TrEMBL record, chains A, B:
Transmembrane segments: 14-37, 57-77, 89-110, 130-151, 163-184, 204-225
Organism of derivation: Amazona guildingii
Protein name: Plasma membrane ascorbate-dependent reductase CYBRD1
Compartments where located: Apical cell membrane
Bias kind Low complexity: ranges: 243-256
Catalysed reactions, semicolon-separated: monodehydro-L-ascorbate radical(out) + L-ascorbate(in) = monodehydro-L-ascorbate radical(in) + L-ascorbate(out); Cu(2+)(out) + L-ascorbate(in) = Cu(+)(out) + monodehydro-L-ascorbate radical(in) + H(+); Fe(3+)(out) + L-ascorbate(in) = monodehydro-L-ascorbate radical(in) + Fe(2+)(out) + H(+)
Cofactors that this protein relies on: heme b
Top-rank EC class of the record's enzyme: translocase
Keyword annotations: Cell membrane, Electron transport, Heme, Iron, Membrane, Metal-binding, Oxidoreductase, Translocase, Transmembrane, Transmembrane helix, Transport
């Protein structure tokens, strides 16, 4: 009974955090639209500054917000009754959407630069941003090949999983850092005088707040992704295995960035300790912790 | 024997990573000095742009490099024979040095702005940078009160530890993101024309590379900090407890961002599993995983 109460309380905390993250992410997208439509001539695809404007909108919508959701999709408790392979397709699908939006948003910048004879790829923002898109695409391709296609041996999945998780979270953080550089650049370039950025006009305040929201969104997502007690439980996995006719084999690496519970959660912790042991016996290797 | 070989190999990997991180951090400091002395009139404390120049040098030396070392100081295998409380003093001491250097570097910017009638605190860089310094100072103060002073009960230490670890790593990542914004700002402001930033003069290339090095340094440090198999082993802790006359009490939260080994390390992993169990019995709560 006490354990049940703890579990409910923990579920409530997860939901509160999830709703906060979604809210912050949603408000970020709104802020990017207000920026672009209220302060900067809106959107179009004509080589003008309005084509450039797709860049912040698509990056914040796709490369930050959708990527953030893709990262925590395994953590949603109501998905634990779904098969693991379905969740992998959702994880990969959301990341594919994010990748496409990121690439389109880069095309918008290149076309805008070329139309206005502005050099490409000279800024630190462009260097790290392009590297992030390349590594993100590589990560998606390798993740698909190793974890979704049925060819990779268990030992390979187990070896790749910690790298997949760490590089995924690192790329996400790097994307947010790159967005902050982009905001800085764009505010300096578009607020040169009357008013200048340094005079703190409303546009500058709005977009600075957008930057702060992106950092808060990242902090929420990475916290949810790195709590071990919010992981998809392995039992469901085993169930899914049985229904799809797979056979449990080998052991599995604990591959989520993990950070044990606190005193209030000793019940929960010892439960997850038990689950981990069960997991070592039952689970298919490398399958559980794609997040 | 196989286990010993694995352990040696793992030690070698840790050393290789540590040397790489130190090298990247060291080269970053050198790059900041080359930037300031070769391209930007050097350093002084006179309200001129040379006073501003202390800002990047002190941030990269203190708030990035020294903070990075403070984060991984518990991971250095040759410190495992030292008492835990000594290591805590070193961790807190390095973070205190980093905090002082960060504050001095902020004073340099405020004095430079005030001397030249440039507004303060208008940019996203300044907002997030000031927030990072404030949270860093709070983190240091709370860490000292909870983990170094002998008054906090075990339950409090256990509850605070995961938050201490997560906010420490998050602040470190945010500091690097803020440095990237600062680099972007400074290159745009100081390379307006003849040459402009967009013409990619050598200074721009050097400082862009500095930004890339900071990201690589962060990736190395956070990887080392989040591998569970490189944690300070609990046995040494128990030994230290015995020699200082402390009594083992309670259980301890697993508080490092953890991400289990891969297939090659199954021996190591089962060893750390055993160590964790022993730890639950022996270790003093909240003491072990200050990193």
């Amino acid at each position: 009974a006490v354990y049940g109460a703890r579990k409910m309380e923990d579920y409530g905390r997860f939901l509160a955090l999830l709703v906060s993250a979604l809210l912050v992410g949603f408000v970020s997208v709104i802020f990017s639209l207000v920026w672009v439509f209220h302060y900067r001539e809106g959107l179009s695809w004509d080589g003008s500054t309005r084509e450039f404007n797709w860049h912040p909108v698509l990056i914040i919508t796709g490369f930050v917000f959708i990527q953030g959701i893709a990262i925590i999709v395994y953590r949603l408790p109501w998905t634990w009754k779904c098969s693991k392979v379905l969740m992998k397709f959702i994880h990969a699908g959301l990341n594919t959407i994010a990748m496409i939006l990121a690439i389109v948003s880069m095309v918008a910048v290149f076309e805008y630069h070329n139309a206005g004879n502005i050099p490409n790829m000279y800024s630190l923002h462009s260097w790290i941003g392009l590297a992030a898109v390349i590594f993100y695409s590589l990560q998606l391709f390798l993740g698909f090949a190793v974890f979704l296609l049925p060819f990779a041996p268990v030992s390979l999945r187990t070896a790749v999983m910690p790298i997949h998780v760490y590089s995924g979270l690192t790329i996400f953080a790097t994307v947010i850092a790159t967005a902050l550089m982009g905001i800085t650049e764009k505010l300096i370039f578009s607020l040169r005088s009357n008013p200048a950025y340094s005079e703190s006009p409303p546009e500058a305040t709005l977009v600075n707040c957008l930057g702060v929201l992106l950092v808060i969104f990242g902090i929420f997502i990475l916290w949810m992704a790195s709590r071990p007690y919010w992981k998809r439980p392995p039992e469901e996995n085993a169930k899914a295995l049985l229904t799809t006719g797979g056979t449990p084999e080998g052991t599995e690496a604990e591959s989520t960035m993990t950070d044990g519970g606190n005193a209030d959660e000793s019940d929960l912790r010892s439960n997850s300790e038990a689950a981990r042991k069960q997991n070592l016996k039952l689970d298919e290797a490398g399958q559980r912790s794609t997040m």
